What does this fold into?
Amino acid sequence: MRFLLTLSLAGVLALTSCSTSTTTANTERRVTTSADLERLIKDRLAADPQLSARKVDVDADAEKNQVTLKGTVPSEQLRLRAVELAKAARNGVAVVDKIDVKPTSVPHGRPRGRCRSASCRRTAQQDRKPGRD
It folds into this structure.
């Protein structure tokens, strides 16, 4: 009787360890295509409140385990954050960073665009006169 109990316990342990490795293999299989990897990274970028409003393109090559990020962000911190999120998406993924940092600034403290007040229009016209810097 002890022999049967020991044998059944060994069988249960063997099956449990097999099912865990199968689950791990299924998890790795989920992100095997380039489209899957690209979607995973785009979802991570969209989930970040500061990066979701930015235009960052993602090109993935699952066979090479490589991702290319392209676009423009206003700060170095956001560029680093985008690269960090892409690297965390998959173990060992190589990230090619082609993100430009272009701070958004307003020249002379005034927004560009149409002036709504008469004084603003006069100032804008004076700024456009030749010889005025």
The chain has two domains: 1-30, 32-133. The first strand starts at residue 56 and ends at 61. The longest helix spans residues 2-29.
